Amino acid sequence: MNIRNLVSVVIPAYNVGPHIVEAIDSVLQQNYPHIELIVVDDGSQDDTADVVAKRYPQAILIRKANGGAATARNAGIRAARGEFIAFLDADDIWLPGKLRAQVEYLGARVDVSMICTGFSHWTSDRNGVFPDLLTMIPDQSDVAPGAIDSELSGWIYHKLLLHNFVWTTTVMMRRSLIDRIGFYDEKFRLGQDYEYFLRASRETEVHRLSRIYALYRHHPGSATARGNDYNYGASIMLRARDTWGLASPNGESISEREFRERVHKIHFMSGYRLYQRGNLATAFDEFKLAVKERPLHLKSWAYAALAATRAILQ
């Protein structure tokens, strides 16, 4: 049974002892009273779970073996009792007013089941020091709390295929939408949120509030920074295309050329990151796939040749 007006906040956490206090405090400082706080410790090897247990007795703390963010979010969803579910990564933070603005918007738009917001990037300096939080909050006095970005709102599936502008930390969903689309796909160690939002965008309009309501923290320990040798992004896009095509439910679409250009770019950038890390064989495979999508892109051919040559000489 879902509790009306309750927002269940699901926070997956893995080795985020230095950051999780700021994340949770940003939830508790929201000007919305009906909050259920769920922290899922995904087998952390630091003091993450102990910090939560000692400082936040009101939180539902779930401890589990490490399985990745998708498994942790799914555990949180299963425990959630709220009419609404909001996601927050344990190293990010929310800015004041986020939850109230989203709940009020969804209350006024019963036809919309998912809402996200604008966000800013929060990057440390060379010494790992992050800028003062107050310097990161922009003046948004001219932006109404419930104003939406019309270009990034509506039936956005086809737009998401070209650019994932939905950041997990900003998302709130109705529980009824989750009941329709199911859980996160646990096969994806990275990109599981992208796949999830593509799936959601087949079921509902997704609206994005114009205001910046979250800070996305960049640090070397994050899953995004660590990267992966498997190209989850391209795999997710190709599966979406094969399942649903290139058009949103309202008929708006992108072209096959635009789609292939996007897939090419993902393969090329993945290959380049792998090449820089010295994983030459896998880099070569990625450059080959980039060439397949854009046979006349000389830079893809050049890097494929470089990766192959260096791999042979190793």
Automatic annotation (TrEMBL):
Ordered alphabetically, the record's keywords are: Transferase
Q: Which Gene3D superfamilies match?
A: Spore Coat Polysaccharide Biosynthesis Protein SpsA, Chain A (3.90.550.10)
Q: Which residues form the Glycosyltransferase 2-like domain?
A: 8-116
Tell me which stretches of the chain form a coiled coil. Answer: none
- Molecular-function GO terms, alphabetical: transferase activity
The protein's name in its UniProt record: Glycosyl transferase, family 2
Source organism per entry reads Aromatoleum aromaticum (strain DSM 19018 / LMG 30748 / EbN1) (Azoarcus sp. (strain EbN1))
The root-end lineage is: Bacteria, Pseudomonadati, Pseudomonadota, Betaproteobacteria, Rhodocyclales
